[in-house]
Amino acid sequence: MHAHARLLVLRLEHVPFVDATGMQALWDLRDTCNKHDTRLVLCGMRTNVRYKLQRAGLLGQLGAANVIDDLTQLT
Fold first, then answer.
1. Predicted confidence (pLDDT) per residue in 29-50, tens digit
2. pTM for the whole structure
3. Strand stretches in the chain, DSSP E
């Protein structure tokens, strides 16, 4: 039996930008997390990264509760 995590937090404060490959990797990770009932939370994004992920629709798919500025906001 292989257990999966219930929560995965990606701290992105040191990510300066996201290119097409990084974007695809994030979408793939979201799909994998959904498949395994794992909550994916993105934390601490720079403004330009947040903007790009918003325009791509990823932040909307994750929902506001899963897009946070810092770990103190994790509920």
1. 999 999 999 999 999 999 999 9
2. 0.92
3. 7-11, 39-43, 67-68
